[in-house]
Automatic annotation (TrEMBL):
Lineage start: Bacteria, Pseudomonadati, Pseudomonadota, Gammaproteobacteria, Oceanospirillales
Pfam families, per database record: ABC_tran
Keywords annotated in UniProt: ATP-binding, Cell inner membrane, Cell membrane, Membrane, Nucleotide-binding, Translocase, Transport
Membrane topology, record value: Peripheral membrane protein
PANTHER family hit by this protein: ATPASE AAA-TYPE CORE DOMAIN-CONTAINING PROTEIN, OLIGOPEPTIDE TRANSPORT ATP-BINDING PROTEIN APPD
Alphabetized InterPro entries for the sequence: AAA+_ATPase, ABC_Ni/Peptide_Import, ABC_transporter-like_ATP-bd, P-loop_NTPase
Chief site of localization: membrane
Alphabetized CDD domains for the sequence: ABC_NikE_OppD_transporters
Molecular function as annotated in GO: ATP binding; ATP hydrolysis activity
Family indicated by similarity: Belongs to the ABC transporter superfamily.
GO cellular component: plasma membrane
Source species: Marinomonas rhizomae
The ABC transporter domain, residue ranges: 12-259
Name assigned to this protein: Peptide/nickel transport system ATP-binding protein
Keyword match Repressor: no
Length: 279
Protein backbone atom coordinates (compact mmCIF):
# COMPACT_ATOMS: atom_id res chain seq x y z
CA UNK A 1 0.00 0.00 0.00
CA UNK A 2 1.37 3.42 -0.94
CA UNK A 3 2.27 5.60 2.01
CA UNK A 4 1.29 9.24 1.69
CA UNK A 5 3.77 11.54 3.36
CA UNK A 6 2.56 15.02 4.29
CA UNK A 7 3.97 17.75 2.02
CA UNK A 8 7.04 19.52 3.47
CA UNK A 9 6.24 22.57 5.57
CA UNK A 10 6.87 25.98 4.08
CA UNK A 11 9.62 27.61 6.16
CA UNK A 12 9.79 30.83 4.13
CA UNK A 13 7.27 32.39 1.79
CA UNK A 14 8.15 35.63 0.01
CA UNK A 15 4.95 36.99 -1.50
CA UNK A 16 4.91 39.85 -4.06
CA UNK A 17 7.74 41.55 -2.19
CA UNK A 18 8.57 45.02 -3.52
CA UNK A 19 11.19 47.29 -1.95
CA UNK A 20 11.30 51.01 -2.82
CA UNK A 21 13.58 53.88 -2.04
CA UNK A 22 11.52 57.00 -2.69
CA UNK A 23 10.07 56.35 -6.16
CA UNK A 24 12.81 53.92 -7.17
CA UNK A 25 11.92 50.21 -7.19
CA UNK A 26 14.91 48.20 -5.92
CA UNK A 27 13.20 44.79 -5.67
CA UNK A 28 10.22 44.32 -7.94
CA UNK A 29 7.30 42.10 -6.96
CA UNK A 30 9.19 38.88 -6.25
CA UNK A 31 7.61 35.67 -4.93
CA UNK A 32 9.17 32.36 -3.91
CA UNK A 33 8.94 29.69 -1.21
CA UNK A 34 11.57 27.65 0.65
CA UNK A 35 10.35 24.40 2.19
CA UNK A 36 11.61 22.56 5.26
CA UNK A 37 15.03 21.03 4.54
CA UNK A 38 15.39 22.67 1.12
CA UNK A 39 18.62 24.28 -0.06
CA UNK A 40 17.73 27.12 -2.39
CA UNK A 41 20.08 29.63 -3.98
CA UNK A 42 19.33 33.19 -4.96
CA UNK A 43 21.63 34.00 -7.87
CA UNK A 44 22.17 37.32 -9.61
CA UNK A 45 24.68 39.92 -10.63
CA UNK A 46 25.86 42.65 -8.32
CA UNK A 47 23.02 45.11 -7.65
CA UNK A 48 20.24 42.71 -8.66
CA UNK A 49 18.60 42.94 -5.22
CA UNK A 50 19.77 39.75 -3.50
CA UNK A 51 21.06 41.33 -0.29
CA UNK A 52 18.05 43.61 0.06
CA UNK A 53 15.82 40.57 -0.26
CA UNK A 54 17.91 38.83 2.44
CA UNK A 55 17.51 41.86 4.71
CA UNK A 56 13.75 41.93 4.21
CA UNK A 57 13.73 38.26 5.25
CA UNK A 58 15.93 38.63 8.34
CA UNK A 59 14.52 41.97 9.50
CA UNK A 60 17.59 44.18 8.97
CA UNK A 61 16.32 46.46 6.18
CA UNK A 62 17.18 50.12 6.56
CA UNK A 63 14.09 51.90 7.97
CA UNK A 64 13.91 54.32 5.03
CA UNK A 65 13.27 51.48 2.56
CA UNK A 66 9.54 51.02 1.94
CA UNK A 67 8.13 47.51 1.80
CA UNK A 68 5.10 46.14 -0.04
CA UNK A 69 4.01 42.50 -0.15
CA UNK A 70 4.84 40.00 2.56
CA UNK A 71 7.52 37.78 4.04
CA UNK A 72 6.23 34.82 6.04
CA UNK A 73 8.65 32.86 8.24
CA UNK A 74 7.26 29.71 9.85
CA UNK A 75 3.73 31.05 9.32
CA UNK A 76 4.43 34.47 10.86
CA UNK A 77 4.10 37.60 8.70
CA UNK A 78 7.29 39.63 9.27
CA UNK A 79 7.77 41.92 6.26
CA UNK A 80 7.44 45.07 8.35
CA UNK A 81 9.11 43.70 11.49
CA UNK A 82 12.73 44.51 12.38
CA UNK A 83 14.69 41.62 13.81
CA UNK A 84 14.41 42.64 17.47
CA UNK A 85 10.61 42.86 17.27
CA UNK A 86 10.25 39.30 15.99
CA UNK A 87 8.86 36.31 17.84
CA UNK A 88 11.40 33.52 18.36
CA UNK A 89 9.91 31.26 15.66
CA UNK A 90 10.25 34.04 13.06
CA UNK A 91 13.96 34.64 13.71
CA UNK A 92 16.26 33.90 10.80
CA UNK A 93 19.90 32.91 11.23
CA UNK A 94 22.13 34.89 8.87
CA UNK A 95 25.76 34.68 7.85
CA UNK A 96 27.40 37.38 5.76
CA UNK A 97 30.50 37.64 3.61
CA UNK A 98 32.02 40.03 6.16
CA UNK A 99 32.58 37.84 9.23
CA UNK A 100 34.16 40.63 11.27
CA UNK A 101 30.87 42.54 11.42
CA UNK A 102 29.32 39.57 13.25
CA UNK A 103 32.10 38.92 15.77
CA UNK A 104 33.49 40.95 18.65
CA UNK A 105 37.13 41.63 17.68
CA UNK A 106 38.25 42.05 21.32
CA UNK A 107 36.80 38.90 22.86
CA UNK A 108 38.04 35.32 22.61
CA UNK A 109 36.03 32.89 20.51
CA UNK A 110 35.19 30.73 23.55
CA UNK A 111 33.97 33.68 25.59
CA UNK A 112 31.79 34.96 22.73
CA UNK A 113 30.25 31.54 22.23
CA UNK A 114 29.47 31.02 25.91
CA UNK A 115 28.10 34.56 26.41
CA UNK A 116 25.82 34.60 23.41
CA UNK A 117 24.55 31.02 23.48
CA UNK A 118 23.36 28.40 25.93
CA UNK A 119 26.55 26.42 25.45
CA UNK A 120 28.74 27.04 28.48
CA UNK A 121 30.96 24.11 29.41
CA UNK A 122 34.30 23.67 27.68
CA UNK A 123 33.39 20.16 26.52
CA UNK A 124 30.16 21.42 24.95
CA UNK A 125 32.00 24.23 23.16
CA UNK A 126 34.61 21.79 21.86
CA UNK A 127 31.90 19.44 20.57
CA UNK A 128 30.21 22.33 18.81
CA UNK A 129 33.39 23.44 17.07
CA UNK A 130 33.99 19.85 15.99
CA UNK A 131 30.54 19.81 14.38
CA UNK A 132 31.63 22.83 12.36
CA UNK A 133 34.66 20.79 11.17
CA UNK A 134 36.95 23.14 13.10
CA UNK A 135 40.12 21.30 14.00
CA UNK A 136 42.39 22.28 16.88
CA UNK A 137 39.28 23.40 18.76
CA UNK A 138 41.09 23.73 22.12
CA UNK A 139 43.35 26.41 20.76
CA UNK A 140 40.57 28.14 18.76
CA UNK A 141 38.55 28.81 21.90
CA UNK A 142 41.23 31.01 23.39
CA UNK A 143 41.96 32.98 20.19
CA UNK A 144 40.58 36.32 19.02
CA UNK A 145 38.57 36.32 15.74
CA UNK A 146 41.50 38.04 14.00
CA UNK A 147 43.65 34.99 14.87
CA UNK A 148 41.42 32.67 12.81
CA UNK A 149 41.46 32.16 9.04
CA UNK A 150 38.57 33.53 6.97
CA UNK A 151 37.14 30.04 6.51
CA UNK A 152 37.35 29.28 10.25
CA UNK A 153 35.60 32.57 11.04
CA UNK A 154 32.87 31.81 8.52
CA UNK A 155 32.23 28.37 10.09
CA UNK A 156 32.14 30.02 13.50
CA UNK A 157 29.51 32.47 12.20
CA UNK A 158 27.45 29.54 10.91
CA UNK A 159 27.61 28.03 14.43
CA UNK A 160 26.48 31.32 15.97
CA UNK A 161 23.61 31.52 13.48
CA UNK A 162 22.43 27.99 14.13
CA UNK A 163 22.74 28.30 17.90
CA UNK A 164 19.97 30.90 17.78
CA UNK A 165 17.65 27.91 17.27
CA UNK A 166 16.44 29.20 13.90
CA UNK A 167 15.36 26.63 11.30
CA UNK A 168 16.09 29.00 8.39
CA UNK A 169 19.64 30.05 7.55
CA UNK A 170 20.25 32.86 5.08
CA UNK A 171 23.86 32.77 3.91
CA UNK A 172 24.70 35.94 1.96
CA UNK A 173 27.81 35.27 -0.16
CA UNK A 174 29.50 33.35 2.70
CA UNK A 175 32.22 31.91 0.46
CA UNK A 176 32.96 34.88 -1.80
CA UNK A 177 35.95 36.16 0.15
CA UNK A 178 37.49 32.71 0.72
CA UNK A 179 40.11 30.69 -1.09
CA UNK A 180 38.90 27.58 -2.92
CA UNK A 181 39.77 25.10 -0.13
CA UNK A 182 38.10 27.23 2.55
CA UNK A 183 35.06 27.58 0.26
CA UNK A 184 34.83 23.79 0.12
CA UNK A 185 34.98 23.48 3.91
CA UNK A 186 32.20 26.04 4.39
CA UNK A 187 30.04 24.34 1.76
CA UNK A 188 30.66 20.97 3.40
CA UNK A 189 29.53 22.30 6.79
CA UNK A 190 26.42 23.86 5.28
CA UNK A 191 25.62 20.60 3.47
CA UNK A 192 26.00 18.58 6.66
CA UNK A 193 23.84 20.97 8.64
CA UNK A 194 21.07 20.70 6.05
CA UNK A 195 21.32 17.17 4.67
CA UNK A 196 22.42 14.94 7.50
CA UNK A 197 20.76 17.03 10.20
CA UNK A 198 24.19 16.71 11.79
CA UNK A 199 23.49 19.72 13.92
CA UNK A 200 20.25 18.34 15.30
CA UNK A 201 22.30 15.68 17.10
CA UNK A 202 23.09 18.47 19.50
CA UNK A 203 20.49 19.59 22.00
CA UNK A 204 21.72 23.15 21.50
CA UNK A 205 20.91 23.40 17.82
CA UNK A 206 17.67 23.37 15.83
CA UNK A 207 15.46 20.33 16.20
CA UNK A 208 13.69 20.53 12.84
CA UNK A 209 15.37 20.21 9.44
CA UNK A 210 17.25 23.31 8.44
CA UNK A 211 16.23 25.26 5.33
CA UNK A 212 18.91 27.24 3.54
CA UNK A 213 18.72 30.33 1.33
CA UNK A 214 22.19 30.62 -0.17
CA UNK A 215 22.91 33.93 -1.87
CA UNK A 216 25.61 34.03 -4.50
CA UNK A 217 26.58 35.44 -7.86
CA UNK A 218 28.41 32.20 -8.69
CA UNK A 219 26.27 29.42 -10.13
CA UNK A 220 29.16 26.93 -9.96
CA UNK A 221 29.34 27.36 -6.15
CA UNK A 222 25.56 27.07 -5.90
CA UNK A 223 25.69 23.85 -7.93
CA UNK A 224 27.74 22.18 -5.19
CA UNK A 225 25.14 22.81 -2.54
CA UNK A 226 21.66 23.70 -3.68
CA UNK A 227 18.67 21.83 -5.09
CA UNK A 228 16.77 24.77 -6.48
CA UNK A 229 17.71 28.17 -7.88
CA UNK A 230 16.02 31.54 -8.13
CA UNK A 231 17.65 33.87 -10.65
CA UNK A 232 17.38 37.64 -10.15
CA UNK A 233 18.16 40.43 -12.57
CA UNK A 234 17.53 44.14 -11.95
CA UNK A 235 15.34 43.48 -8.92
CA UNK A 236 13.13 40.90 -10.65
CA UNK A 237 13.03 37.11 -10.61
CA UNK A 238 13.66 36.09 -14.20
CA UNK A 239 13.74 32.30 -13.75
CA UNK A 240 13.44 29.68 -11.01
CA UNK A 241 13.50 25.90 -10.91
CA UNK A 242 15.57 22.82 -10.10
CA UNK A 243 19.21 23.83 -10.29
CA UNK A 244 20.21 20.90 -12.48
CA UNK A 245 17.43 21.85 -14.96
CA UNK A 246 18.62 25.43 -15.02
CA UNK A 247 22.16 24.26 -15.64
CA UNK A 248 21.17 21.94 -18.49
CA UNK A 249 18.33 24.01 -20.03
CA UNK A 250 18.52 27.65 -18.97
CA UNK A 251 15.57 29.55 -20.43
CA UNK A 252 16.18 33.23 -19.73
CA UNK A 253 19.02 34.96 -21.63
CA UNK A 254 20.61 36.08 -18.34
CA UNK A 255 20.60 32.51 -16.94
CA UNK A 256 22.01 31.29 -20.26
CA UNK A 257 24.90 33.75 -19.92
CA UNK A 258 25.52 32.67 -16.30
CA UNK A 259 25.63 28.99 -17.23
CA UNK A 260 27.80 29.60 -20.28
CA UNK A 261 30.29 31.59 -18.17
CA UNK A 262 30.39 28.81 -15.55
CA UNK A 263 31.01 26.17 -18.24
CA UNK A 264 33.88 28.25 -19.57
CA UNK A 265 35.50 28.16 -16.12
CA UNK A 266 35.16 24.36 -16.01
CA UNK A 267 36.73 23.70 -19.39
CA UNK A 268 35.51 20.10 -19.60
CA UNK A 269 31.97 21.65 -19.70
CA UNK A 270 30.94 19.70 -16.61
CA UNK A 271 29.92 21.70 -13.59
CA UNK A 272 30.84 20.24 -10.19
CA UNK A 273 28.30 17.81 -8.82
CA UNK A 274 27.11 18.13 -5.25
CA UNK A 275 28.78 14.85 -4.27
CA UNK A 276 32.20 16.21 -5.19
CA UNK A 277 32.24 18.21 -1.99
CA UNK A 278 32.27 15.03 0.07
CA UNK A 279 35.41 13.76 -1.59
N1 LIG B 1 20.53 50.73 2.05
C1 LIG B 1 20.34 51.06 0.78
N2 LIG B 1 19.92 52.29 0.44
C2 LIG B 1 19.74 52.62 -0.86
N3 LIG B 1 19.90 51.80 -1.90
C3 LIG B 1 20.32 50.57 -1.63
C4 LIG B 1 20.56 50.13 -0.28
N4 LIG B 1 20.99 48.84 -0.31
C5 LIG B 1 21.01 48.50 -1.61
N5 LIG B 1 20.61 49.53 -2.41
C6 LIG B 1 20.50 49.50 -3.87
O1 LIG B 1 19.58 48.48 -4.21
C7 LIG B 1 20.02 47.75 -5.34
C8 LIG B 1 20.15 46.27 -4.97
O2 LIG B 1 21.23 46.15 -4.01
P1 LIG B 1 21.62 44.76 -3.33
O3 LIG B 1 22.67 45.07 -2.31
O4 LIG B 1 20.42 44.06 -2.86
O5 LIG B 1 22.27 43.99 -4.58
P2 LIG B 1 22.99 42.56 -4.58
O6 LIG B 1 22.35 41.77 -5.66
O7 LIG B 1 23.00 41.97 -3.22
O8 LIG B 1 24.46 42.99 -5.01
P3 LIG B 1 25.89 42.39 -4.49
O9 LIG B 1 26.02 41.03 -5.10
O10 LIG B 1 26.88 43.36 -5.05
O11 LIG B 1 25.87 42.38 -2.99
C9 LIG B 1 21.32 48.39 -5.79
O12 LIG B 1 21.01 49.30 -6.82
C10 LIG B 1 21.80 49.11 -4.55
O13 LIG B 1 22.56 50.27 -4.89
Amino acid sequence: MAVNFPPPRCTLSVQNLTLFLDEKVLVDNISFDVHEGEKVCLIGASGSGKSLTARAINGTLAPYIDVAGDVIVNGVSVAQQPVLARRAEARVATVFQDTFSALNPLMSVGKQLSLSTNVHSRDELLALLKQMQLKDAESLLSRLPSELSGGQRQRLCIAFGLLSGANLLVADEPTTALDVLSQQQVIKVLRQCCDDHACSHSEYLHASPLSLLFITHDISVAAQLCDRAIVMQDGKIVEQGALQDLLSHPQHPYTQRLVKAAHQVFSDTKLPQKQAVNA
